[in-house]
Backbone:
């Protein structure tokens, strides 16, 4: 009975205290696609994620009812940083759905024209609004509707302190007449949220970063790898001192216990297993604030990561001392020389092997298709001798000779075979994600092996020049570049054995691997050079290469390859590739295989299409 009455009271007081129009609410998830298109079409950063923002602390003067209901302690605002644009999860600030929808679009337009940095929040927002309205006059009517609705939604401030009244007047004037207000009073509380403007980014307190980050890495290496999660909103973090649970008496009052939303002690550094990983993920999504203890024993997490490397006796065979490779630093907009160390390697225990029986029938069918490339023939026109008379050339000569003396030309056509002057390098992603199972019998790495074998069988049948390499990485100092076949090697059972001995590696530092593959291709003398990249995910590593850094570096590596006359093309089985591959490879530079089990057949077919145009 008490719970039922309490539930009714909570609903009543929350409804009375809320100033939102729930009946007109618009969810970010329903408009995220349109927002992303507007943001990028108007000049927003192509690789920034457009995601929902969770609530953040916003110290505003609250009414008596809001204090009782616990409302307005956290507010979801619009902001952006170098990685993403964050917009409120829900907008219900206006009485109509159309206005709330227009507000989302307006915020996306503002963000596209702003660099994310503020010197004076209110003055800079005014200047930004003026800039947008001057550049896109068609938005003036929409902005005026939003501005009028914004003024109408503001509460009564007549009983507030004088300074807060002056602040509210200044904000209203700045909204109605952008650029007209140059001074704002100082107040003790933040003004009521201005949803028509952008806010400074929600920076993470550096004190919450773990102390076991490698000091030798750049500042960006302090960016933690984020686990894939269903909830896209960010959580607030704070660090607290952990108590010593081995000493002292256990004295407490029941009413002083923390609730789940207030404190959760996560000691991931001393876990013996990850059996409860899914439960921890679910719990983290339910929390408003994640609190981490400053516990020194968590340094074991670094040891756990580094021990992903195999022992020397179980590792592949290194070739030489390694090759220094540059890497693109997108924040500095420069290519840093000798940034990565790439280690060429040979697969361990790779003895000669025949083509697996399960692939032999498919290989013959693909080879029959590729025979068409050999049979393509063409006419050479205007020849001195040939199989047939070149009638158009003879008529031109005949007409011209009647007008004036004309030099003798060839009047024949010669039938010639197709001359395929092309070199192709297939670069396969061998990261740890390829160890994932597609079904009860096969993993991603198995599909990759079958694809490379059928690809090699097809190209060998038409005598096209090709090479095959694999890659993975563990930080920038260990980029593994596995040799399967170079351009000078004959394709035989030794090569087949290398491919069949492939094992899942580590991470995906794609930029360094592409630069080395480009270097290998440049040395070939063929007129056409094709770089095929086979992957199952986006560029990433356990240092700063995670996120935008890896995407920008790979994009730059592709630009470098294009300038050298190489045609890169990416084949991926990543279903989320549409969010980053168009930026890296261009709209026509990649394809997504929706059913990974089709990859072995689709890869040779794609090569056929790319080289027969």
Residues:
């Amino acid at each position: 009975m008490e719970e039922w009455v309490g539930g009714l009271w909570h609903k009543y007081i929350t409804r009375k205290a809320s100033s939102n129009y729930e009946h007109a609410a618009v969810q970010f998830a329903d408009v995220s696609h349109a927002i992303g298109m507007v943001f990028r079409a108007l000049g927003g950063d192509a690789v920034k994620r457009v995601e929902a923002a969770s609530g953040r602390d916003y110290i505003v003067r609250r009414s008596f009812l809001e204090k009782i209901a616990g409302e307005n302690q956290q507010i979801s605002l619009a902001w952006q940083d170098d990685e993403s644009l964050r917009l409120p999860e829900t907008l219900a600030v206006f009485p109509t759905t159309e206005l709330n929808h227009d507000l989302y679009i307006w915020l996306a337009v503002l963000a596209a024209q702003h660099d994310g940095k503020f010197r004076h929040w209110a003055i800079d927002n005014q200047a930004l609004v003026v800039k947008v309205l001057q550049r896109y006059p068609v938005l003036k009517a929409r902005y005026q509707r939003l501005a009028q609705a914004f003024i109408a939604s503001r509460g009564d401030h007549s009983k507030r302190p004088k300074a807060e009244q002056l602040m509210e007047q200044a904000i209203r004037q700045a909204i109605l007449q952008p650029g007209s207000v140059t001074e704002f009073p100082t107040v003790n509380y933040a003004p009521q949220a201005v949803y028509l403007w952008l806010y400074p980014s929600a920076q993470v307190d550096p004190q919450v970063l773990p102390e076991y980050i490698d000091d030798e890495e750049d500042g960006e290496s302090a960016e933690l790898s984020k686990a894939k999660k269903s909830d896209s909103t960010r959580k607030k973090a704070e660090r607290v001192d952990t108590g010593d649970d081995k000493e002292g008496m256990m004295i407490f009052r029941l009413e002083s216990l923390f609730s789940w939303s207030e404190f959760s002690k996560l000691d991931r550094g001393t876990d013996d297993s990850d059996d409860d990983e899914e439960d921890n993920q679910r719990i983290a999504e339910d929390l408003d604030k994640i609190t981490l203890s400053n516990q020194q024993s968590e340094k074991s997490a670094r040891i756990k990561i580094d021990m992903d490397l195999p022992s020397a006796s179980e590792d592949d065979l290194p070739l030489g001392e390694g090759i220094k490779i540059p890497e693109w630093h997108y924040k500095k907009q420069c290519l840093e020389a000798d940034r990565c160390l790439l280690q060429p390697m040979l697969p361990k225990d790779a003895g000669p092997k025949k083509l697996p029986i399960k692939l032999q029938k498919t290989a013959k069918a693909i080879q029959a298709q590729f025979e068409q490339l050999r049979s393509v023939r063409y006419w050479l026109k205007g020849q001195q001798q040939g199989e047939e008379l070149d009638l158009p050339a003879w008529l031109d000569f005949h007409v011209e000779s009647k007008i004036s003396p004309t030099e003798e030309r060839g009047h024949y056509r010669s039938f010639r075979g197709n001359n395929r002057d092309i070199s192709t390098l297939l670069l396969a992603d061998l990261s740890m994600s390829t160890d994932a199972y597609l079904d009860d019998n096969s993993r991603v790495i198995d599909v990759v092996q079958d694809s490379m074998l059928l690809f090699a069988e097809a190209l060998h049948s038409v005598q096209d020049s090709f090479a095959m390499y694999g890659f993975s990485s563990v930080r920038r100092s260990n980029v593994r570049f596995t040799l399967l076949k170079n351009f000078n090697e004959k394709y035989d059972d030794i090569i087949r054995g290398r491919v069949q001995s492939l094992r899942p590696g580590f991470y995906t530092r794609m930029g360094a691997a592409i630069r080395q593959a480009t270097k290998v291709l440049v040395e070939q003398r063929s007129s056409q050079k094709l770089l095929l990249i086979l992957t199952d995910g986006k560029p990433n590593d356990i240092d700063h290469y995670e996120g935008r850094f890896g995407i920008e570096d790979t994009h730059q590596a592709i630009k470098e390859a294009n300038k050298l006359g190489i045609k890169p093309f990416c084949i991926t089985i990543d279903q989320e590739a549409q969010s980053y591959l168009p930026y890296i490879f261009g709209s026509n530079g990649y394809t997504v295989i929706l059913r990974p089990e089709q990859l072995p057949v689709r890869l040779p077919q794609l090569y056929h299409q790319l080289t027969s145009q």
